[in-house]
Amino acid sequence: MLTTILRQLSQYTPLHDWFIGLSSRNVAPVLVALALGLGLLLRCTMRKASQNAWGLPLPPGPPHMPLVGNLFQMPQVDPWIVYNDWAKKYSTNTFSEHISSRDITYLEVLGQRIVILNSVKSITNILEKKAVNTSERLWMPVFDLLKLDWSFPFMNYTLFWKAHRKHFHQHLGPMQMEIYRPIIEDQTIKYLRALVKNPHDFCLQTRSWLGLTFMRLSYGINDAQWNENLIVKAQAVHQGFSEAAIAGHYLVNSIPLLRHVPAWVPGAGWRKRLEAAGELSREVSRVPFKQAKEQVTHPSYEERATIARNVAAIGYIAGADTTLSALYGLIIALAMHPEVMAKAQNEMDTSIGTDRLPQPEDYERLLFVQAVVKESTRWHTVGPFALLHVSKKDEHSCRILERFPDPMSFKPERYFKGGKHNKELLDPEFGIFGYGRQMCPGRLLAKDIILAHFAMCMISLFNIKPGRDEHGKEIPLEYKVASEVICTPAPYQVEVRPRSANDAALIG
Ligand code: HEM
């Protein structure tokens, strides 16, 4: 039995061939070796886990620690490269005669079938046309400990999920953007003023601006301290979920029985951390809604309380880090391509002048700025694999690649042909926000923040350049991603300064 489990688990490690030869007689020394290895591994990951990719301290509290860290994780190669190789090796055409074999990769891991969709055609056929069958979610054992039953991105395709979706649309549809703009604008102005005074903390300030904006939008409370306290807790829940959702991060996801290991058992510290995060998750999903309801009138409070509070609570958790990652992608793209920045600034100066701040209405006219944002969301894809879709019947899950010529280059010009919109090219928006019935319901808000507020303000008011070291020498920028559930550019340093004194004065 033990040897079988070890052989199965070893599929994820470079030791697979060795484990195949394992017999029940030599299993004891292997277990001792594994225990020692595990101890070492936990020590290493513990040090790493005290900071996130951007070097920002993680919020206090749990759960920053995987049980079996990197042992079962994919090798440190960009996952899309691995999936592309798999597409060549393991493609199949079992599912439909209309889809070619390179469109789909079919794998079986620990008895679980995984289907990777490699093309727009297979995604449309499977996740959109057959959405009734392919819109379930994967519930992991660790989610029970994290008490994520309120979190609707993990709900199956049920009436309860539909009620959440409807509520989300009612409050984040195109008409509602007008209601939210004053809040976004107020927070944006505060952020830009702070940035002019202190351009060094660009990354932290951008994060804080988005966090406060999302909390204000979710609960309607304009109290920075209240919102900040809540952000710290929501961030801990988000971190817990992000780690839990990475395949192989928690052994309990592969061996659900481990859920029942009591927290006092030596080595079960992971359970304590998950349980503490679970308590925070309950708190975040209930308490702020109750407090806010006592303080403000917010349109959503009139609705069914459970759904309204679940939707409010997920706004920050699903929206803030995804949007932040997209902004970090845009910023590094601009800093690495001064010619693109100059062309976008020129378009803004000629279309709206230099004597006022850009307004959301302006962006319809700014075709090149729009192309810059489009290209940055393609070049730096925040969720390259969306969230897993699970099928009810024997069908499928996830997604990937459609070809753009020279895909690794940042070229907003690719969206134009003969001076006009290039209709031959796939709109990168296909895919960025997911597929079918579970396509991201926050996409209008995300686009509003990214384009109508952030991109226009940054491009028209600031110059963004590579950062400098203590000798004043430019630090070369390199785009790499720290790939997890949400892909974030690896930390980089940029210099963000107003283009002129006049620009700084416009912010007040
Ligand atoms: C650039 C920013 C964003 C990106 C790239 C993004 C991307 C995604 C993706 C890929 C999915 C999975 C869709 C699928 O399963 O096929 C998703 C789902 C979701 N997103 Fe977003 N998102 C962003 C911003 C937001 C914002 C601002 C909010 C909330 C205000 C939000 C709320 C949600 C929710 C609630 C779901 C789950 C939907 C469901 O399961 O029915 N997202 N998002």
UniProtKB/TrEMBL annotation:
Domain of life: Eukaryota
Keyword field: Heme, Iron, Membrane, Metal-binding, Monooxygenase, Oxidoreductase, Transmembrane, Transmembrane helix
Entry annotated with the keyword Ubl conjugation: no
Spans traversing the lipid bilayer: 20-42
Cofactor(s) required for function per UniProt: heme
Any one Gene Ontology molecular-function term assigned to this protein's record: oxidoreductase activity, acting on paired donors, with incorporation or reduction of molecular oxygen
Heme in keyword set: yes
Binding residue positions for heme: C440
SUPFAM superfamilies assigned: Cytochrome P450
Pathway listed: Secondary metabolite biosynthesis
Recorded family membership: Belongs to the cytochrome P450 family.
Protein name: Cytochrome P450
Organism: Coprinopsis marcescibilis
Lineage: Eukaryota, Fungi, Dikarya, Basidiomycota, Agaricomycotina
